[in-house]
Amino acid sequence: MQESRQTANNHESTKEDAYHVNCQQNSLALYTAIYENALMAKECTDVLLGYTDNLEFSDLIRKQVARYDDFVQSCQIEANALGTSIKDKTKTGRTMAKMNAKLKLTANKSLSTMAEMLIQGATMGVIDIKRTLSQSADCLDKSVALAEELLKYEEKVVEEMKYYL
After folding, report:
1. pLDDT attached to residue 8
2. Which pLDDT belongs to residue 126?
3. Is there a contact between 37 and 90 (Cβ–Cβ < 8 Å)?
4. N or C terminus of the chain with fewer C-beta within 10 Å?
5. Domain of residue 21, residue span
6. What is the mean pLDDT of residues 21-29?
């Protein structure tokens, strides 16, 4: 009888361990999505600084770059806390997006064009994070909270940029 209780306890412990590992893996995937999203936004937003001399707009852009960097750093810290690191798989995509932004700004450096670019980028980020969240099950609460925070921030960027259209 005592042996069967131990077996049941070991089986329960194994299920809990498997759940915990799965939760960590899912959270790392969510942190990676947040990281990639925020890094793309940070680098593409930073490109705009070289194309505007409007001090108010430049200040707003610098704040956005800094905020996106906060998300990037948070993801790296949380991944390290899970005993791993985030693998950057989006370098080529980011490079192409920055080149595209520079090309578009060469033709038209207006604040309206820049605002439109930021709205489009943030909207794509919102879609990506919402999709990732809907597909993420059994994640650490911290990872879900960070994704939701990024989602709200990108929605705020869209609203801020409407003024400049």
Report:
1. 46
2. 94
3. no
4. N
5. 2-162
6. 84
Report the alpha-carbon distance of residue 94 to residue 40 in Å, rounded: 6
The structure tokens listed for 84 are 């791993």
CATH of the domain at 61: 1.20.1260.10
Report d(CA 143, CA 44) in Å as an integer. 24
Tokens 């801020």 map to which residue? 160
Question: Which candidate, 68, 67, 88, places its Cα nearest to that of 79?
Answer: 88
Domain count of the fold of the chain: 1
Question: For 64-113, what is each residue's pLDDT tens digit?
Answer: 999 999 999 999 999 999 998 998 887 888 888 888 888 888 889 999 99
Burial grade of 130 (CB within 10 A; 0-12, 13-18, 19 or more): middle
62: three-class secondary structure by DSSP: helix
Please choose, from the candidates 153, 129, 157, the residue with its C-alpha nearest in 3D space to the C-alpha of residue 143: 129
What's the pTM value of the predicted model, to 2 decimals?
0.86
Inter-residue contact 49 to 58 (CB < 8 Å):
yes
